[in-house]
Amino acid sequence: MSVIGGIVIVLLAITGIGLILAIPGVIVLAVLGIAGSAIGTLLVGRFVLDAASSSAGEPDTLVVAFAGAVVLVAVSLIPIVGGLVNFAVSTTGFGAVLFVLWERRG
User: Fold this and answer.
1) pLDDT digits (tens, 9 = 90+) for 21-30
2) The CA-based dihedral angle spanning residues 88, 94, 100, 101, taken in that order and rounded to the nearest 10 degrees
3) Under 8 Å between Cβ of 1 and 30
4) Burial of 64 (0-12, 13-18, 19+ CB in 10 A)
5) Rounded to 5 degrees, what are φ and ψ at 72?
6) Which of 14, 18, 40, 64 could join 89 via S-S bond, C-beta 3.0 to 4.6 A?
7) How far apart are CA 50 and CA 55, in angstroms?
8) What Cα–Cα distance (Å) separates residue 24 from each residue in 18, 33, 62, 92, 95?
9) What is the pTM of this model?
10) Cα 5 to Cα 69: distance, rounded to the nearest angstrom
11) d(Cα 105, Cα 36) in Å, to the nearest integer?
């Protein structure tokens, strides 16, 4: 979840009118956060497979997702670095989702 989005939702929840906006805002940020984590995992998997493979063919999406998940699980076992890497990957995926939504908006 976006840190700034969380702060905005808390500030909205303090007011009575903002509470009406805060509840759907939490739901939207949760959905975007889940989608961002998935996209970030795919980005890591694509990077790993591109670096490890010299074949010209496109790998299957499940293979890319599995490779990204394996790398992120392995990195998350490192105490401090794992959390920072997972945060960076999720934030990158969250930004990618927001970018696509912004581009579709016109």
Assistant:
1) 788 888 888 8
2) -160
3) yes
4) buried
5) -70, -35
6) 40
7) 9
8) 11, 14, 31, 23, 20
9) 0.77
10) 26
11) 18
